[in-house]
Amino acid sequence: MSSYKNIKIFTGNAHPELAAEISEYLGIEVSAASVKKFSDGEINVFIEESVRGADTYVIQPTCTPVNDNIMELLILMDALRRASARRITAVLPYYGYARQDRKAKAREPITAKLLANLITTAGARRVLAVDLHAGQIQGFFDIPVDHLQGVPILAEYFLNKGAEDIVVVSPDLGGVTRARILSGRLHAPLAIIDKRRPKPNVAEIMHIIGDVKGKKVVMVDDIIDTAGTITLGAQALIDNGAKEVYACCTHPVLSGVAIERLQKSAIKELIVTNTIPLSPEKKLDKIKVLSIAPLLGEAIIRIHEDLSVSKLFDQ
Asked: Are 303 and 161 within 8 A, CB to CB?
């Protein structure tokens, strides 16, 4: 029997499978809540058990349909706050709007900051997030943010695979820090793809910094959305003599023509985590899904017991 009786796990409709995995890790049941829609499209939430004095965690990646999932998260937290939950933690395996983190040009919103304000106002007293696209989003919150890394899970997969002659590749200059962490865990050299992006969701490969000839290459990113960058990068690596190309990411958004691009690409295998649920049409043979549930479950235990969360990533 679990000793975490005062922990209650709630979920909306974004990713109930992940919530069930986390609850199983903790040895508890997912708490009862009804999250439905009225006939006019408004969201109807009802908490079906007492949460007075409980340490509550709402598991809700704000992925597609983004705005529905955000509203479910906010209304669930408001319901818990009004029902006298002791603490509400928003568990965000994927943080939607994270790429709108600054004003790139005049008269643009900073939607990632707006979402942080909404989450706090709704009642969250802590946020547990995985691989925020921009690290500064932690500073958008005036409440504690525990930021988990997906790279160790991806690294463990390749270590267990026992692959040799690996080179880790960052698909752009902005992802070098993440690629360096993976290369450190795999004890592999690092290469970088220098690219130019003429407009959103369009990437043009320029050249490769580093030696990939005759090597097994692992490209790593936090998000794969339309898969333009990663598939163009894979072809550029093959053209430069790479033996095989693998790709990995934490968040498989895979929107638009992503699946078609991946199917036709030079990528041998794409390794992702289940921060975002994959619909049946996205489950290609070359896509391998790793579970983030044990990491989130362990983080929840550490938050509940007031222990260090950063210790999870000590090598």
From this structure: no
